[in-house]
Design a protein that fits this description.
The chain is mainly α. It has one domain (22-443). The protein has 14 helices and no strands. The protein has helices at residues 22-30, 35-63, 68-100, 105-139, 145-171, 175-198, 204-225, 237-272, 275-286, 290-342, 344-352, 362-385, 390-414, 416-443. The protein is globular. The termini are far apart.
Length: 445
């Protein structure tokens, strides 16, 4: 019988925070931006920059060569891949990161190997679901959504397996290897899009397929880089799944709820209006794409360091570090959004020609939405550091309810502008709930 590791906690209890003196707190906050860990964080930010830049360029390559409908197909498919990411985060990746980081090598090998089997089962299940759903849509006459959903099986399978390898490298501190893996995957992906564009074969479906090919190309060196993490002496799959679920269920719920409240609006737009409308949304969103880089870099860099800081300095130290994060990132965030507003028509013309100029006023709503998204982004990381994911879950559930009521009415009445207005409402609701929860959490110190 496989032995159970004592290093995997069986519950999600909040860790007690120590209370050092003022000098110790000052050192803890200073360490947020300095030292070996901080350098790894900066490297992780470069990794996120590669991914975000590739998504930005991929959208431009596609938008300049295909119709708004095809861009909408790609945009909706990309959003669906993000849903599978939410499932992977809660069930596999976040538990691997948290439990695996402090383990010794033999224990980690056993835990990572059992997690890898669960990951393969999850990826295969999602790929099978996508293929079956796409086939069913196609034979019932939906020749736009059907092929797009069917194509997701390849993209989801490759991306999930490659992402698991990348995150295993992160868990053991090998950030440079993860960065190299990202560069390879996205180079292959964009190269295929350029090649197929020159051959006249580029479409929304083939752009999704390119994601799969890029992921599989990087999976091979990813498996080689992580070869020392695998063993046949695995932990019990049931035990691993039980512990992952005990820790990750709120993360899973929060991630899915966040996906619904933030990313499902374009899917509703595609279904209720048209894929062309969803394509227009994707074109506008691409103008503020650098904000995605900023938010993901904050999550990658700030969350683990904030968790350690919370253990060392408690809520006061975490609050100071949260303030520093906002102070350090507010200027670049505002710069991106101001440029998007002031030069919206010129940017749309430069990136896409005349195709999406009629939607230029929508940039104003998109900028408000992303400003609100930024306003609670680092705060979510603070809640993760405190192991309090419930406020994030509740906030996004409230926003989801608003989407399926007020949001649907807005889409039917105003189309793409209704989508943007609904997202602004959602982000505002999440901000109100999270900041009130944060005020109460600080008051309990």
């Amino acid at each position: 019988m496989p032995q159970k590791p004592h290093s995997i906690p069986s519950n999600n209890a909040e860790l007690p925070a120590s209370k050092p003196g003022n000098f110790g707190r000052l050192l803890a906050v200073k360490s947020l931006f300095t030292g070996k860990g901080a350098r790894a964080g900066y490297l992780a930010a470069v990794d996120q920059a590669v991914i975000s830049l590739s998504n930005f360029l991929g959208t431009i390559i596609l938008a300049r060569q295909v119709s708004p409908t095809e861009l909408g197909v790609y945009g909706v498919g990309f959003i669906a891949i993000n849903l599978t990411r939410a499932l992977q985060e809660g069930l596999i990746v976040q538990p691997l990161n948290v439990f695996g980081a402090p383990m010794d090598d033999p224990t980690f090998k056993r835990y990572a190997s059992s997690s890898a089997i669960l990951q393969v089962l999850l990826a295969a299940s999602l790929a099978l679901l996508a293929a079956a759903s796409g086939w069913l849509l196609t034979i019932t006459g939906n020749d736009t959504a059907g092929p797009a959903v069917f194509a997701l099986w390849f993209a989801v399978l490759g991306w999930q397996l490659q992402e698991f390898c990348r995150r295993a490298l992160y868990t053991r501190g090998r950030v440079f290897n993860a960065l190299a893996n990202s560069i390879l995957a996205n180079t292959v992906r964009l190269g295929l899009m350029v090649l197929w564009g020159a051959q006249g074969r580029l479409s929304g479906v083939t752009a999704l397929t390119a994601i799969g090919w890029g992921s599989f190309a990087a999976l091979v060196p990813g498996l080689w880089s992580t070869r020392d993490y695998w063993t046949r002496d695995i932990l019990s799959l049931g035990y691993t799944l039980k512990n992952n679920w005990a820790f990750g269920r709120w993360i899973l719920g929060g991630s899915v709820a966040n996906w619904l409240s933030v990313e499902f609006y374009p899917v509703l737009t595609a279904g209720m209006i048209s894929f062309a409308a969803a394509g227009a949304y994707r074109a506008l969103q691409n103008l503020v794409a650098p904000i995605h880089l900023l938010l993901r870099a904050i999550d990658t860099f700030f969350t683990p360091r904030a968790a350690r800081l919370y253990e060392q300095s408690g809520k006061p130290g975490l609050a100071r570090s949260l303030g520093l994060i906002y102070l350090a990132t507010a200027i670049p965030m505002l710069g991106v959004l101001v440029i998007a507003v002031l030069f919206r028509q010129s940017l749309l013309q430069f990136l896409y020609g005349d195709t999406y100029l009629e939607y230029s006023q929508g940039i104003l709503l998109m900028v408000i939405f992303y400003a609100l998204l930024y306003a609670y982004g680092p705060l979510q990381s603070a809640f993760k550091a405190m192991r309090r994911s419930r406020p994030v879950f509740i906030a996004n559930i409230v926003a989801t309810i608003a989407m399926f009521t007020i949001g649907i009415v807005a889409i039917l009445r105003w189309g793409v502008y209704g989508t943007l207005g609904g997202q602004v409402l959602n982000a505002l609701l999440v901000n109100i709930i999270l900041w009130e929860s944060w005020r109460r959490a600080k008051g309990g110190d």
